[in-house]
Amino acid sequence: MPYYTYVAKDSLGKVQKGRSEAENEQVLVRRLREKGFWVQKVTEERGEAAAEQAAPRARASFAIFGRVSGRDLSVFCRQFATMINAGVSLVRCLAVLEEQATNSRLQEIIRDIQASVESGETLARALSKFPRVFNNLFVGLVRAGEVGGVLDETLNRLSGFLEDNERLKRKVKSAMTYPVLVMCIAIGIVIGLVTFIVPKFMDLFRDMGVKEMPLPTQILINFSNLLTSRWYFVLIAAVFSMMAIQRYVRTRVGRRHYDWLKLKFPVFGKLNHKVALARFSRTLSTLMMSGVPILSALETVAAALDNEIIGDAVMAARAAIREGDRIGDPLQRSGYFPPMVVQMITIGEETGALDAMLTKIAEFYESEVDATLQSLTAAIEPVLIVFLGVVVGFIVISLFLPMLAIINNLSGA
């Protein structure tokens, strides 16, 4: 794991400097916050450790255009578990997996992992050198399987988890495909009308002697001139806006604002909240069934949620458990975990069946996500049609208002 140097203030306001090892910057920040520090700066060291971790990635640089998908990792885990269960040695398993992998980048990564394992490193340590492919959850489960001697069972669980996660992602993407496609078509139609049709009507009105345009028509003319004669300003403004938003989201404050907005945004906020709860329950259940201690499991879950707001609530629960409290109380105080989830977690903790309860919560919220996506898709279609009708209607009315004025003038004359 890489080392980081940090600058932070304690509860008395005194500046503290230190050096620590962590999976990534976010994990270190959460760990320091848990100890009562206000983190001001975190910098990754670029020494021998960083060079050691960068070497495998550099060797795999020829496949930078490839991407290891969740499906590739799921197949990798399933085949790996089958061979280990059959008694094949770890190095031989990796050699076979390299030959069977269809992803060139994954092949190169497996080759580096095999070399690390042959040199005496553990499998979890070898996997941790590729954090962009094998996240903290993956490495933590493999480490627990190695320690407990149940690596094949852990890999099977991990494969099932990855399949469920990919299934959830596909459902969200497929539900959003139709609305996005309709919106793109609508924007294309509007741009075509404004840039090609409207200027011809404007030339016609000028030839007929119309000097003063109605307000809707003047607004449409200004918008058309902006797209036809100053389109580069629009393009530059759009590009700079996107770059500024991306840069802001990469900051710690911007990331928190973005995650908060994802939970509070109308309609889509509830969907994102349910997806986060399903991922929390499924991830924590998988970790606990694999024998990972609750404190380590919660830290891994907080990093895997991809939401700083809910991740902080999970880390608060971890701190409370370390002080002897139950997991349900701090989750309830956060306000992001519904009473049903808190009650089921409390019951599971009292009865010693927390992993089973978390699995039931995950299944419930995954079904809720399905229902929400179906209702959302059904509701978005008429909204988009109405939106397109209003925009096109505004353009048509704006074009006909000067024509009505011309007809009235001719009839009066």
Folded structure, characterized:
The protein is mostly helical. It has helices at 25-34, 48-59, 70-85, 90-100, 104-118, 123-127, 136-148, 151-207, 215-229, 231-250, 252-264, 268-289, 294-304, 308-322, 328-334, 339-351, 354-412, and strands at 3-9, 15-21, 38-44. Strands 2-1-3 form a 3-stranded antiparallel sheet, covered by helices on one side. The longest helix is centred in the C-terminal third of the chain and has 59 residues, at 354-412. The relative contact order is 0.08.
Q: How would you name the CATH homologous superfamily of the largest domain? A: Type II secretion system (T2SS), domain F
Report the oligomer: single chain
Q: Major sheet: size, sense and barrel closure? A: 3 strands, antiparallel
Question: Helicity, in percent?
Answer: over 70%
Residue fraction in strands: 5-15%
Termini gap: 87 Å
Summarize the structure.
The chain is built from 17 helices and 3 strands. It has 413 residues and is mostly helical. The protein has a 3-stranded antiparallel β-sheet with strand order 2-1-3, with helices on one face.
